[in-house]
Amino acid sequence: MSFSPSPNSAAYDLAALGWDGTLAELFTEYGSRGLIAARVTRVDRGLCDTLTAGGAVRADSTAVTTADPEHTVCTGDWAALEPGPQPRLVALLPRRGVIARASVDRTSHRQILAANVDTLAVVASLAAPIKPGRIERLLALAWNAGATPVIVLTKADVAERDPATTAADVSALAIGVDVVTVSARTGAGIDDLARRLPGTTVLLGPSGAGKSSLSNALLGVDRMDTNDVRAVDGKGRHTTVHRELFPLPGGGVLIDTPGLRGVGLHDVGDGIEHVFGDIEEIAHGCGFRDCRHRSEPRCAVQDAVTDGRLDLDRLDRYRRMVRESEWAASRGDVRQASKRTAADKAVTRDIKALYRLRGRRD
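Structure for Small ribosomal subunit biogenesis GTPase RsgA, as requested:
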């Protein structure tokens, strides 16, 4: 069976795309069957664009497309590709660094935004007011996935206030996270940012934050369309409509994504604990282990708010995020329990039918 890369497609170094020894070991069985490794760069209906050692390949993806949004093929996946005149993806390798939010339809499913991510760049525009809650939510997704977050403050050339002051405020909000100020228009800060983006980087942020312009600056070529934000309210339109992966000039890859209107949380308790490490540390002094930091006696967190060591708005955001994440996780548990119950009932029906059949034969 011959290999069929796209016409005029250059070969790719899989290591530069994120391939490593662990993936090679996982791929051993597929390789013995004549399949080739492919990284998914874009997902369309029933088709995927991929990069392989032999070049870019557009392949049928129906075999790895499921109704469950948590397990269907997505940008960033590593897959086993069957080459030939009509290439097709036949299996997905186990994922790591999965960036996922609660499904926008409020079901118990998660929506996978990108797979096999090493770095999550939280993109916020200096030309609009910074929203701490949005930044904290994206940081929680990153930490929970095991990815390293970097906060990127864009549009420094048209900032509403002093960029250094805003960067300092954001740094205080996101303890231990690098904050980089850039301007895609002037090129300021782009080289510094590029050095902080190892492996696979995904850009996440709202429409109008400048993700597409930032992508073009990092790629060194205009690959993404850009739009101006609306002057009336400072909001942007969805310039990017697909999640798409691009190789970076110095190695590694970049995943650009459509703007996020909302960032729902689904079972990201570990990420929340990391983002709000200051509150978690204070909570160790609470009189009760299961303290909810509301009206319980001897609550160290409430004491910190009273004496000014902790901002009440930050505590409120923490409470909302914990409540939302736990609620989504509980719905997921109910869904899994429902599936198990349905399976148990099906087995019981089959056993009863078998006994009825045996009774008629006796």
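The chain has three domains: 14-92, 99-256, 281-325.
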